Amino acid sequence: MIRRRTLLTTALAATAAIGLAACTDDGSSSDASDAGGASDGGGDALSGVTVSEDLGAEPTVEFTAPLEISAAQAQVVVPGDGATIADGDTVIWRHLYVDASTGETLQSWWQGGPAGGVQVTTDSIGQAAFDVFTTMTVGSRFVMAGWQQGNDGQAYSLLQVGDVDRVVSPLRAEGEQGDPSGTYPDVTLDDSGAPSISGPGEGEPPAKTVRELLIQGTGDTTRAGDYLTMQYSGWKWSDGSAFDSSWERGAPFSFVQGGGQVIQGWDENLLDLKIGSQVMLVIPPAEAYGEGEPTEDSPLTGETLIFVVDVLDAAHTAD
């Protein structure tokens, strides 16, 4: 619900695994379950691709362009020495994207692009890619061949090379209790860490986003450009009704901080927080989904929103 635009802009600004929006040869969308993996049986594009194995340097990718990708694929280039990735893990990686039609590098963490990651489930990456990732270990370098669709509607054939840095853990805020003002609804947590609030807001809602620290984490500090991974729940100020929750979906949410991928109240108010922190954000309409009356397509227009956000991970851009 929070994401307000796709991760692809004019050419490429993706941060997750390619192939999640796979397309057929005629440009139409195909089912995500067919996107990814060792091979879908319709081609072997990766047989013509060479990826460098020096994990201390930016990967180099060599192939003869244009490279025809008729089926999405994934394979391990260099095995890591960490733990094996498991079903449901949220992994963070450093990566680059190469245009398969030209050989041009479209985005690279080593050249200032964002980090990325994905939750490893069959629903998110498809069965075949899942089968590869769940044999992969932390520290591995992988290569994937697939597609992404831009805002212009065009499907881009891509190679993605990634170095798996870590698995996100824990999946809830941990630290010392903060000292909220008491002005806003109380927050209680269930055994898993999922939050609930005591009721709707009282009185006039704030005209600018308010941030209250509920738990003070102890990790690194978030900053602009981070690939931020979080748990969150959201409620309407007006009646306290819940409208969205990563906890209920069973998957953390990730986005590039400050990249315009989410509402303004998130982009501007999740900076300078310690990983492991939990905050309440009270966001007025102008910094959420806009002023005006709600519609079927935009039911949160005109609503002040209350979020409780657990900051789980912040993968920085290259220093």
UniProtKB/TrEMBL annotation:
**EC number per UniProt:** 5.2.1.8
Ranges of residues in domain PPIase FKBP-type: 225-315
Which molecular-function annotations from GO does this UniProt entry contain?
isomerase activity
Taxonomically, which superkingdom? Bacteria
Keyword NAD on entry: no
Q: Which InterPro entries has this protein been placed in? A: FKBP2/11, PPIase_dom_sf, PPIase_FKBP_dom, TAT_signal
Q: Which residues form a coiled coil?
A: none
**Main EC class the enzyme belongs to:** isomerase
Protein family (similarity comment)? Belongs to the FKBP-type PPIase family.
Q: What is this protein called?
A: Peptidyl-prolyl cis-trans isomerase
